[in-house]
Amino acid sequence: MGHKVHPKIHRTGILFPWESRWVSVKKYSTYLEQDINIREYLLERFKDAHIDSVFIERGPKNVTITVFAAKPGVIIGRGGQGLDLLRKDIERKFLQMKIKVKLNIQEVRQPSLSAEVVAQQIVKDVENRIPFRRIMKQTIERVMKANAKGVKITLAGRLNGVEIARTETLSEGKIPLITLRSNVDYSNRIARTIYGVIGVKVWIYKGESFERIDKLAEKQDIKRKKKN
Questions:
Q1: b/e per residue 68-91 (b: at least 16 CB within 10 A)
Q2: Which domains does the chain have, with CATH numbers?
Q3: What tens digit of pLDDT does each residue of 90-141 get?
Q4: Do 173 and 153 touch, CB atoms closer than 8 A?
Q5: How does DSSP assign 51-93, residue by residue?
Q6: Which of left, alpha, beta for 176 (phi over 0: left; psi -120 to 50: alpha)?
Q7: What's the pLDDT tens digit per position in 52-80?
Q8: pTM, two decimal places
Q9: Is 217 helix (H, G, I), strand (E, B) or coil?
């Protein structure tokens, strides 16, 4: 029997960094619950922003939340008003106004190479009743044009409203899931239709990497270069 492992979890600590960065012994469960609730809240509230990832860093008196989104303007709002409202909402709902929140909104350079963004777009198209095969073919074509080494998409459920649920998979290129240095991005989302739930899985292979991939470190390096 095969044992399936989440591709990103399999490489966390080796190729990918932890998305929650803090150390706590006494309040571990409390902080973990807060992190999960904050991520779910952001993904639900800003569906149109196509959020790729949310990094949470905790200090003694503040929390820094860095959001990578394909459409950051949806979160920021006009003149940064949306950012202030969001910061106050997070402090009130999840942190009970005890800790100050600092928000950083960053743009995803290549949305077509983000498995999370691609999966969210597929979910949106499926819920809008676009034929699933057309969605899969167009998505694969778009991802490969963005210079991906390989892509695989799986949809499962009552596709196009048929009575019997089934699983359909389309792929192009290669997806090496065993090699730890393989930079494989993965996302698993759910589309809610009038026929029931349809599962969406996306794998995107970007090539081999011999160095750790840290989005936050890359952004800090870019800022330093601009200052110099």
A1: bbbbbebbbeeeeebbeebeeebb
A2: 18-107 (3.30.300.20), 111-208 (3.30.1140.32)
A3: 988 888 767 889 999 999 989 999 999 999 999 999 999 999 999 999 999 9
A4: no
A5: EEEEEEEE-SSEEEEEEEES-HHHHH-GGGHHHHHHHHHHHHH
A6: beta
A7: 999 999 988 889 999 999 999 889 888 77
A8: 0.88
A9: helix
